[in-house]
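Task 17 of the worksheet. Students: predict the tertiary structure of the chain below and write it out as structure tokens. Keep your answer in the requested format; marks are given for formatting as well as content.
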Amino acid sequence: MLFYLLLLSLLLGSSSSPVGAQELEENLLQWIESNGLAKLNSYFEKISRKYPDSPITLFIEAYIEPDGERAVHLYEQYIRKYPQSKYSDRALLKIAQYYYAVGSYVTARQYLDNLVDQFPASNSIAEAKYLAACCLIAMNYHNSAEKELKELIEKYPESPFKVFAQQELKQMKTSPESGSGKGTENVYDQLIEATQVQGRYAVQIGAFGERDNAQKQKDLYSRLGYPATVATKYVGDRLLYVVWLGDFETEDQARKYGEDFKSKNQVSYQVVRK
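Model answer:
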């Protein structure tokens, strides 16, 4: 509530309750959880005009960016310019989540290791260690993953990620040959949906067995100005690379966008839940 009043005073230009970039930075994630990404997006232009050189402005720009690759570029810029800012650890985690989602597990691990090394007191440490173990499972390094998950459970007994780590260990025992990341991806996707405010739907325009083919389609529509990204998902036991457009809070918004895309490009689509 306090941050809502501070932000409202900023947007209305009130001088009776001055708000600074520090207040914005201190309460940003809490405000997003309460109000949603769409509302933050609508406020961004006014915030960026008032605080053009603030680290929080660059972080918000990255946070609301619908294109995954561009968001990563912005987060990396944020880290380079403001390496010790309040959300540098979150920026590293966001980048790692992107690379995990597109199947670049080694790169994701590198960013997660950086987070743990550079910000040992971060509130994101348990999540980073959990996702790092998920990367190992996806790469079939089961013994190392098991060790890291057990260490997480022991070291962070009060963390909600303890439960997810226990689920991963259970699945590894019941499906020892499934080191493709299938079970892990499902658990982590559920976690992201539960803990982050973001669009729940996307418009899927392609699904491929080879990542290069998905990347080619993504690059084509990115050049045409569409917010295209490559993600991974399983159909049965088969790993597919899918091309998504946009980031929508409702299924109706996604379907309206898809119909417009289809009429302009004569390409079929389907609305998917992230």
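Marker's comment: The beta strands are 201-208, 228-235, 238-248, 270-273. The first helix runs from residue 2 to 12.
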